[in-house]
TrEMBL record:
It is found in: Cytoplasm. Belongs to the PNP synthase family. HAMAP family: PdxJ. InterPro entries: Aldolase_TIM (IPR013785), PyrdxlP_synth_PdxJ (IPR004569), Pyridoxine-5'_phos_synth (IPR036130). This is Pyridoxine 5'-phosphate synthase. Its main location: cytoplasm.
Amino acid sequence: MTKLSVNVNKIATLRNSRGGNVPNLVKTVIDIEGFGAEGITIHPRPDERHIRYQDARDLKQVVSTEYNIEGNPIKKFIDLVLEVKPTQVTLVPDAIDAITSNAGWDTIKHKDFLIEVISEFKRNNIRTSIFVDPVSKIVEAAANTGTDRIELYTEDYAKKYEEGNQSGIQSYIEAAKIAEKVGLGINAGHDLNLDNVQFFKENIPNLLEVSIGHALISESLYLGLENLIQLYLSKLK
Ligand SMILES: CC(=O)[C@@H](O)[C@H](O)COP(=O)(O)O
Ligand SMILES: NCC(=O)COP(=O)(O)O
């Protein structure tokens, strides 16, 4: 069973674009869970361009499924996560000016740092996951950090799948086998969508969770527009 965790960064992006509180992030999250999602993911960035640190606190009051907070473990982020105490923290090595996450951890080079941060979260009973590329030696070394899980960075898979190249899954299959061997749980995310998620799941049977945001929110616009246009037309008759 693979859990679907909905990343709601883009709901916050839309809200922030106008000021005010439309769409209402808290209400949207309650509804997303009501519609069956099994988790909520947020990725507060230091400039708070979408999720604000206060959103992370507000959502803690309403999330009733798995609450996953992703981000680069700078001090401000670590303090926030220790205060909010989500179900899971996912550590991502984001550059400060990154438009979106674009690389996984080097678990060999940053082993000592990761051990230190992960042990602090685990002392506080927060499950940990680290964002990694599907590279055998990186996944193997992830086990030395003490993390509970890895999140496989799926942009490369998604890009190749869109080009019709299904062999992009191979490195993920290898990575998943190694993760299982060294006792790590497996999550996945980035650019997963309605077209590519099933093939990924079918090939990674021990996949515990996917977090999906950008495509899912975009798809919800496309899938909702026809209905909504009819509703507006009926008001304007
Ligand atoms: C780690 C990851 O792949 C996602 O959290 C992604 O980076 C979403 O962040 P943005 O919504 O800021 O692009
Ligand atoms: N961890 C990945 C995530 O939360 C969502 O990434 P994306 O679907 O917005 O690319």
